[in-house]
Write a structure and sequence with these properties.
- By secondary structure, the chain is α/β, with parallel strands linked by helices.
- It has a single domain, classed as Rossmann fold.
- Helices cover 43% and strands 21% of the residues.
- The protein contains nine helices and seven strands, in the order αααβαβαββαβαααββ.
- Helix 3 crosses helix 4 and helix 7 packs antiparallel against helix 8.
- The longest helix has 20 residues.
- The termini are far apart.
């Protein structure tokens, strides 16, 4: 096992990230609850609110991981809708497939796919969501191009991501929590490299995400910062 966290400059960055998520799949949900004090569920609901998913919509959740955001979308799309959860980590998808569908939800199809080369035709989806995954893309701009390609004209893109607060005292707490405590929790969970990568990826993730959405051809781009600046929701329309 590689004990070093992935670095974006590495040639094999995508493969390293894939391997990392394969390794932590078994503890991923529990670690999310611990690291966010359970607030990740609320943030996902707010992201789905922003996507304005309606009954009968076709939805793609990229970097779906263990499936929580896709399942939330399935509840909004209803039995007449269709949801696809796509991820490049098969162990993550196996956990998602093990979560039973709720009555009244859209069916969810779980697909092993690369977000930079999606196996879907142009204009396939009414909405695309990506939660806590955009910063893991080896080429964010290429990923945004793919998201726009598979969206129908007028389709909505919503990106839910961790960000860095800029004001004290939350800025100092965030640094303590993410730079020190999260890697320590990861060590206890059995993968310190993966949870050292998390704060590093947040630090190096592009600040100007809204500008990159505009450059990718999205209209009506806007963003909302929540939880004192720890979480941001960006959205745009194809």
């Amino acid at each position: 096992m590689n004990d070093s966290p992935p670095r974006r400059g590495d040639v094999e960055f995508a493969g390293q990230v894939n391997s990392m998520f394969d390794r932590i799949s078994g503890v991923y949900d529990r670690m999310n609850r611990v690291m966010t004090a359970g607030l990740d569920r609320t943030w996902r609901r707010k992201a789905i609110d922003r996507a304005e998913i309606g009954a009968g919509d076709r939805v793609l959740d990229l970097c779906c991981g263990t499936g929580d955001l896709a399942i939330e979308a399935a509840g909004r799309a209803g039995p007449a809708g269709e949801v696809t959860g796509a991820d490049f980590s098969e162990p993550m998808l196996e956990i998602a497939r093990g979560k039973p569908p709720a009555e009244g939800h859209a069916p969810v199809t779980w697909v092993n796919a690369d977000a930079l080369d999606l196996p879907f035709p142009d204009h396939s989806f009414d909405a695309v969501t990506i939660g806590f995954g955009a910063r893991n893309l080896a080429d964010l701009d290429r990923g945004l191009d793919e998201m726009r390609r598979v969206l129908k004209p007028g389709g909505r893109l919503v990106i839910l991501e961790i960000t860095q607060p800029r004001r004290q005292p939350l800025k100092g707490f965030f640094a303590l929590w993410f730079d020190r405590l999260v890697p320590l929790i990861g060590r206890v969970a059995g993968d310190s490299a993966a949870y050292s990568y998390l704060p590093d990826s947040v630090r190096t993730f592009a600040d100007a995400l809204a500008d990159r959405l505009v450059a990718a051809g999205f209209d009506r781009v806007r963003w909302t910062v929540m939880a004192g600046g720890i979480i941001a929701i960006h959205s745009g329309v194809a």
